[in-house]
Amino acid sequence: MDKQPVIFKDLGIVEYKTAWDYQEQLLQENVQIKSAMRHEPQTSNFKAQTSNYFLLCEHPPVYTLGKSGKKEHVLMSDEELAENDIAFFHTNRGGDITFHGLQQIVGYPILDLEKYSTDIGKYLRNLEEVVIQTIGEYGIKGERSKGETGVWIDADVPGRERKICAIGVRCSRWITMHGFALNVNTDLGYFNNIIPCGIQNKQVTSIERELGHAVDYAEAKEKVQRNFEKIFDSVLT
Asked: Helix, strand, or coil here: 1?
């Protein structure tokens, strides 16, 4: 079976809203293609009409709240957010509150799951696996935590559980958007101002914290790209 082509774009450092709008644009373009073709035979040609994308970026400091999240999980007032130059957005992804900042790899796959598997659970596990294999290359053992999306370390050790990657997605007509945020050399102090993912009494960590030293951010992005291609049986173009 041929590998799925995925258009890769490194957006660099970009404002959260700019990246969100771009994702929405790409998703809607694919949804419109599906709508226009819905009365046509479901041929391979039909499936070829939509385009897959994988966007990587960094965001200036921002807290984002998912559809099921609670604003009280932000432990700062609007005035304090403004004073500290931290943006805030209530988004349409799944999940609760999280932080995005510099030296964090944020990945936004815009994929047509009808070209992969129409199983959101499997899609989320695949995103986790991309991160698990990436941090594994640094000698860090990533794990899943039962009932909690994302990638954890020491997930089953009470008092030691720490999250290294948050995941929250949206899917419309089997087109995905939003994605994952892997802490590389991220300033973890920002997480002190929220209840990350709405989960009490669990820590947040980064590759830098686990290793005791910063790593090459560009190299980490390359590892993410390679592992994405492998796990999703795709080729980035």
From this structure: coil
